[in-house]
């Protein structure tokens, strides 16, 4: 029995000719707030469905705390809660009745737990209204409440803040943060980089069913700012110096500048080398590549896996892993 | 404590109670015998071409049997299909299946809880139809002795027992219809398709029964088992059609149950 909240290995889901999830490996460790980032149709929901045992993988396996949600069914979901896409309830029953039912289906009908969960998402005042009359945001909160009812150690959330107003998004993030601080492991999917950046410490970026990056978010950030522009009194000589410097990659002349890819320490060494070569530096600036740019580069390339993130070989997963 | 089939059953019943469509069938189960009995009270005509039709004015206990003959072919299968065909498919369409399957319940428990709820609904609607028919019948034509299909007469008390037993025997093919409905509900994932599909199945089987050249199949048709109860109203009681109905219905309902169960266990829940 393993202690790892989520271990997906070689996960594949094929829908006819579409490969929705293509050999995904994912490890979420205890205490992680893990972002599962990708554009529409990337396969996030499909991967989460397999983790929750709702759909059968074409190949590969999932283990939640070492147990198999596909083979063992609900027994593997002990200590696990969450939802995929919009949470759904019985529209003709009140939120409280819906929650009582969920509690019964969890095997613990203590009414205080229902009230406590409703309180957490601030729905107590509306709990006797039929869910059919609930707004999108209220349903989303009820979805969280239904998940919390299970007192999970692992929370799997599929785009929890989607469709919420700015206040709702902030509340959702505050709640997730609070739950994570309380020791809960969270895996949340999103197509909003800012959300993941704010909440998560580790991230997997998925594109067309494949993981194109997995690692700590600060490493991703560091690699994002790894392109530099250099302008000197003599670019031709400077290019030679750059190319001779270990750690500098893809140095080339671009208009009036030299463009290269390197980490910060390399750039520091390079500046000394340039001075020693008696070159006058007029500009040495990091390329304006933000995390956002990197995200787009990772998710909008022509074929997945062809883009390399420089200097971070450990974090990069290229093609089929 | 782990939740189980009974947890699901209990909540399925609560859901049925909260749902409007539940009451359509129940109203029909009450309204049809009521309307029939009232029309008998108002007019002296009688349905001569069905068993016991000739006696509706002599004994109120003939009335539930006439109604059973009428309702067994279409009305009760319809009421049954209305809920059985809906019970899984509606959750598919509303996306609530994923909600309950991510709790602590195994898929099999959810399936059998739903099967039990569908059968309960079938039972309740039949009890209502039969109960209303017996009470209204007795009020209109009296709680009198009844002439059996063999021409003998049985006392009112024995006749009541036979009427109740007849409804009980009719439950065998009716439960079979319910299980076919649940299976179609699982397989089609569409409420309307499953409800209509169940009725079409019943009608098609009936159609096979009247096609020339297929007479040899007759004894094995589900719809032929709908009047197996008539064996009870012969003297001495003829148990052979009842025993026959039991195993023929098993040939229909066991595969339906197994297919429904396996498909529900193995299928992807991706809707909603
Ligand atoms: N049940 C299904 N049948 C057929 N194709 C499907 C099914 N579910 C998903 N797909 C396909 O799999 C791919 C991944 O879909 P998925 O819903 O997992 O994406 P996603 O990353 O969750 O996107 P979004 O951000 O829009 O929610 C898509 O091409 C989709 O069309
Ligand atoms: Mg999605």
Give the SSE map.
The complex is a heterodimer of chains A (321) and B (272).
Chain A: E1 6-15, E2 18-28, E3 33-37, H1 44-51, E4 59-64, E5 80-83, H2 95-106, H3 111-120, H4 136-148, E6 154-158, H5 166-181, E7 185-190, H6 193-199, E8 202-207, E9 210-216, H7 217-224, E10 227-232, H8 235-244, E11 249-254, E12 257-261, H9 264-276, E13 281-286, H10 291-300
Parallel strand pairs in A: 3-7, 3-8, 5-6, 6-7
Antiparallel strand pairs in A: 1-2, 1-4, 8-9, 10-12, 10-13, 11-12
Helix pairs in contact in A: 2-3, 3-4
Chain B: H1 5-18, H2 21-42, H3 62-73, H4 75-84, H5 89-94, H6 96-101, H7 107-141, E1 146-147, E2 153-154, H8 156-188, H9 191-210, H10 240-266
Antiparallel strand pairs in B: 1-2
Helix pairs in contact in B: 1-7, 2-4, 2-7, 3-7, 3-8, 4-7, 4-8, 4-9, 7-8, 7-10, 8-9, 8-10
The complex binds adenosine-5'-triphosphate and magnesium ion.
Adenosine-5'-triphosphate (ATP) binds at residues 15, 18, 20, 38, 40-46, 191 of chain A.
Structural description of this entry:
The complex is a heterodimer of chains A (321) and B (272). Chain A has helices at residues 44-51, 95-106, 111-120, 136-148, 166-181, 193-199, 217-224, 235-244, 264-276, 291-300, and strands spanning 6-15, 18-28, 33-37, 59-64, 80-83, 154-158, 185-190, 202-207, 210-216, 227-232, 249-254, 257-261, 281-286. Chain A has 321 residues and is an alpha/beta fold. Chain A folds into two domains: 6-221, P-loop containing nucleotide triphosphate hydrolases (Rossmann fold); 225-288, 2-Layer Sandwich (Alpha-Beta Plaits). In chain A, helix 2 (95-106) packs across helix 3 and helix 3 packs across helix 4 (136-148). The two termini of chain A are 25 Å apart. In chain A, 45% of the residues are buried. Residues 302-321 of chain A have low confidence and may be disordered. Chain B is mostly helical. Chain B has one domain (5-265). Helix content of chain B is 68%, strand content 1%. Chain B has ten helices and two strands. In chain B, a hairpin with a 5-residue loop joins strand 1 and strand 2 (153-154). The two termini of chain B are 29 Å apart. The relative contact order of chain B is 0.15. The model of chain B has no long low-confidence stretch (mean pLDDT 94). The chains are: A alpha/beta (321), B mainly alpha (272). Chain A binds chain B through residues 49, 52-56, 73-75, 77-78, 81-93, 97, 101-102, 104-108, 146, 150, and chain B through 1-3, 7-8, 10-11, 14-15, 18-20, 94-96, 98-107, 266, 268-270, 272. Magnesium ion binds next to helix 1 of chain A.
């Amino acid at each position: 029995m393993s202690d790892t909240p989520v271990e997906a290995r070689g996960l594949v889901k094929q829908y006819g000719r579409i490969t929705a999830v293509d050999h995904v490996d994912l490890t979420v460790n205890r205490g992680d707030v893990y972002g599962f980032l990708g554009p529409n149709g990337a396969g996030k929901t499909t991967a989460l469905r397999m983790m929750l045992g709702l759909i059968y993988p074409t190949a590969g396996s999932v283990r939640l705390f070492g147990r198999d949600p596909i083979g063992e069914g609900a027994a593997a979901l002990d200590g696990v809660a969450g939802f995929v896409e919009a949470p759904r309830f019985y529209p003709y029953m009140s939120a409280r009745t819906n929650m009582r039912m969920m509690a019964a289906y969890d095997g613990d009908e203590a009414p205080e737990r229902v009230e406590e969960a409703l309180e957490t998402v601030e729905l107590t005042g509306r709990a006797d209204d039929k869910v059919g009359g609930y707004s999108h945001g209220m349903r989303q909160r009820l979805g969280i409440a239904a998940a919390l009812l299970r007192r999970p150690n692992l929370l799997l959330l599929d785009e929890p803040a989607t469709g919420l107003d700015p206040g709702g998004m902030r509340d959702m993030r505050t709640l997730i943060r609070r739950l994570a601080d309380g020791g809960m492991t969270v895996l949340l999917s999103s197509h909003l980089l800012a959300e993941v950046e704010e909440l998560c410490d580790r991230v997997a970026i998925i594109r067309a069913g494949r993981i194109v990056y997995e690692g700590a978010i600060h490493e991703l950030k560091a690699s994002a700012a790894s392109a530099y522009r250099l302008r000197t009194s003599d670019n031709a000589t400077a290019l030679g110096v750059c190319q001779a410097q270990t750690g500098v990659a893809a140095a080339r002349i671009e208009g009036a500048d030299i463009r290269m890819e390197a980490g910060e320490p390399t750039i520091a060494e390079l500046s000394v080398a340039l001075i020693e070569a008696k070159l006058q530096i007029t500009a040495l600036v990091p390329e304006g590549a933000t995390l956002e740019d990197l995200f787009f580069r990772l998710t909008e390339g022509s074929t997945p896996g062809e883009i390399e993130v420089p200097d971070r070989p450990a974090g990069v997963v290229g093609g089929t892993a | 404590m782990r939740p189980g089939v009974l947890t699901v059953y209990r909540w399925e019943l609560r859901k049925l109670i909260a749902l409007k469509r539940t009451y359509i069938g129940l109203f029909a189960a009450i309204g049809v015998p009521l309307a029939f009995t009232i029309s008998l009270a108002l007019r002296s005509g009688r349905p001569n071409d069905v068993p016991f039709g000739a006696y509706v004015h002599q004994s109120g206990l003939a009335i539930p049997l006439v109604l059973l003959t009428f309702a067994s072919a279409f009305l009760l299968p319809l009421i049954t299909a209305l809920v059985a065909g809906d019970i899984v498919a509606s959750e598919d369409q509303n996306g609530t299946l994923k909600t309950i399957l991510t709790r602590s319940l195994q898929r099999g428990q959810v399936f059998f809880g739903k099967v039990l709820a569908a059968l309960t609904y079938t039972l309740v609607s039949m009890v209502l139809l039969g109960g209303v028919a017996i009470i209204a019948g007795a009020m209109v034509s009296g709680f009198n002795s009844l002439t059996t299909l063999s021409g003998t007469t049985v006392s009112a008390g024995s006749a009541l027992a036979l009427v109740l037993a007849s409804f009980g025997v009719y439950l065998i093919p009716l439960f079979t219809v319910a299980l076919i409905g649940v299976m179609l509900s699982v397989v089609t994932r569409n409420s309307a398709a499953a409800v209509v599909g169940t009725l079409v199945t019943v009608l098609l089987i009936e159609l096979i029964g009247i096609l020339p050249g297929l007479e040899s199949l007759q004894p094995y048709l589900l719809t032929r088992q709908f009047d197996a109860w008539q064996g009870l109203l012969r003297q001495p009681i003829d148990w052979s059609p009842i025993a026959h109905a039991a195993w023929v219905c098993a040939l229909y309902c066991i595969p339906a149950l197994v297919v429904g169960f396996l498909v529900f266990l193995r299928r992807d829940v991706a809707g909603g």
